[in-house]
From TrEMBL:
PANTHER family: DEHYDROGENASE/REDUCTASE SDR FAMILY MEMBER 11, DEHYDROGENASE_REDUCTASE SDR FAMILY MEMBER 11. Belongs to the short-chain dehydrogenases/reductases (SDR) family. The keyword Electron transport does not apply. PROSITE patterns: ADH_SHORT. It comes from the Bacteria. This is Short-chain dehydrogenase/reductase SDR. Pfam families: adh_short. InterPro entries: KR_dom, NAD(P)-bd_dom_sf, Sc_DH/Rdtase_CS, SDR_fam. Residues 8-190 form the Ketoreductase domain. GO terms for molecular function: oxidoreductase activity, acting on the CH-OH group of donors, NAD or NADP as acceptor.
Length: 246
């Protein structure tokens, strides 16, 4: 068993697929209590069944809605008695050149990837402050460190996650709260499906097909960051497939 995981209450946004779902599997295996949120309730129900979790372990939430995210975290605390880790993981990656002016995607990407993280922080922070303990794990990306053509909006959101997390890290020192940024490269999930721009989606799918590594790579990083002793704060993990140059 990995240390410092058992019995921790871990709230995960974007848990209906990909990195969030795989992290839930690893955490449950290690004895953590997970509360899983996303919009697709059927997917959450299937995951809860797979992991033998009760219905209180899943919650339908749209992270763009501040009240819904607050209700999600409140539900976790009400049913589990506390919250130890908030994983702000939900995200989309609608890559496209700016000249395509896919305005709805710009809006949604900013709302999910930036505001969703902010709402998650806002919902969990009062509990962490009160407890004088807790850990935020905010999901950025290699795209939060480097920018490619077609990646302006997505990278802007993922740089923002790092900016927000770094300020948060400094602000919450008095409360014994840990802050971790996880920045993956290409990992095999449903994320390429959020690329809708003609021409771009095929290229991204091809790149992922050739390069992406399994989602347990990410879950192991979560476990590593969580398992450190209370006085060790892993601030960021940046990892890529060995084959990924970008
Ligand atoms: P997936 O597409 O497999 O999962 C995305 C998750 O986000 C789903 O569970 C989805 O749930 C959820 N989500 C999307 N929009 C909303 C919303 N409005 N409200 C609530 N949940 C939402 O992709 P990944 O698992 O790969 O993505 C997880 C995170 O990892 C994202 O932040 C992504 O940017 C980041 N990342 C991923 C990389 C990769 O290569 N896979 C690389 C770098 C970063 P639902 O649709 O049911 O609401």
């Amino acid at each position: 068993m990995t240390e410092n995981i058992k019995d921790k209450v871990v709230v995960i946004t974007g848990a209906s697929s990909g990195l969030g779902a795989e992290t839930a599997r690893h955490l449950v295996r290690e004895g953590a209590k997970v509360v899983l949120g996303a919009r697709r309730l059927d997917r959450l129900e299937a995951l809860a069944k797979e992991l033998s979790l009760g219905e209180e372990a899943i919650f339908k939430v749209d992270v763009t809605d501040r009240e819904q995210v607050k209700a999600f975290v409140d539900h976790a605390v009400k049913t589990q008695g506390k919250i130890d880790v908030m994983i702000n993981n939900a995200g989309i990656m609608p890559l496209a050149p700016l000249e395509m002016m896919r305005f709805d995607e710009w809006d949604q990407c900013i709302d999910v990837n930036i505001k969703g993280v902010l709402w998650g922080i806002a919902a969990a922070l009062p509990f962490f402050k009160e407890q004088k303990s807790g850990q935020f794990i905010n999901v950025s990306s290699v795209a939060g460190h480097t920018i490619g053509a077609g990646g302006a909006i997505y990278s802007a959101t993922k740089y923002s996650v790092r900016v927000i997390s770094e300020a948060l890290r400094k602000e919450v020192k008095p409360y014994n709260i840990r802050t971790t940024i996880l920045s993956p490269g290409a990992v095999d999930t449903e994320l390429p499906g959020s690329v809708g721009a003609p021409g771009v989606s095929e290229a991204v799918a091809g790149f992922y097909h050739q390069t992406a590594i399994p989602a347990d790579s990410f879950a192991r990083c979560v476990l590593f960051a969580m398992s450190q002793p209370e006085n060790v704060d892993i601030n960021e993990i940046l990892f890529r497939p060995t084959a990924q140059e970008l």
